[in-house]
Amino acid sequence: MDLTTVPTIPATGPATPSAAPLKVAVVLASNREGRFAPVVAGWFLTHTDSHPGIETDLIDVAELDLPIALSYRPDADAQARLAAVSARLAAADAFVVITPEYNHSYPAPLKNLIDWHRAEWQAKPVAFVSYGGVSGGLRAVEHLRQVFAELHTVGIRETVSFHNAGALFDDAGRHRDPAGCDAAAKVLLDQLIWWGHALRDAKAVRPYDA
């Protein structure tokens, strides 16, 4: 055999990881009148706004006015209301859901937002920040983990939860004793960023097909 005729196989190696900041959609789940959600969201965004590896987009369900009745063929009005938020979810590399607990579960507007979409959630990490009374919203988070698992997301194990949340923040929205929750937020973000980059880089090599 003439070895000079053997074709050269190009060397292959791992794809170069993307250095672009991670695009994180922060979903504010409550639209209840008098809601406490903006206080918790404001606290969380102080941690992401100063983080050089993250770009955030706050998606507030109270501002979306999504159709309530799900349809495979939404009319023109429904399509117009869906179009803007669908594009924002699709552009995200990762998600953080900020949710209260209503009757041992999460708010209906959040479920509506989730159910209108599918591919936009897939193969991306999702983390949870919850608040409420004695449970700190954790029962809502446990329900959400099941829902998002069905949508092929990767749930971040660590959660930030605020028990009896209204008593923990002052009138300016500052946490009265932030050491513990600040540390929890750092762990959550560290895990979210790791999974966000890992999944984004993997999809660049092999698109996810559910």
Describe what you observe in this structure.
The protein is an alpha/beta fold. It has helices at residues 37-49, 76-91, 108-115, 138-150, 179-205, and strands at 22-28, 54-60, 94-100, 125-132, 154-163. The chain has a five-stranded parallel beta sheet with strand order 2-1-3-4-5, with helices on both faces. The chain is globular, with a radius of gyration of 20 Å. It starts with 21 loop residues before the first strand and ends in a 5-residue tail after the last helix. The relative contact order is 0.17.
What can be said about this structure in brief?
37% of the residues lie in helices and 19% in strands.
Q: Averaging pLDDT over every residue, what do you get?
A: 91
Strand order of the largest sheet: 2-1-3-4-5
Kindly, what is the distance between the CA atoms of the first and last residues, rounded to a whole number of angstroms?
A: 45 Å
The residue fraction in helices comes out at: 25-40%
Global morphology: globular
Cα radius of gyration in angstroms: 20 Å
* Proportion of residues in β-strands: 15-25%
User: How many H/I helical runs?
Assistant: 5
Contiguous uncertain segments of 5+ residues: 1-13
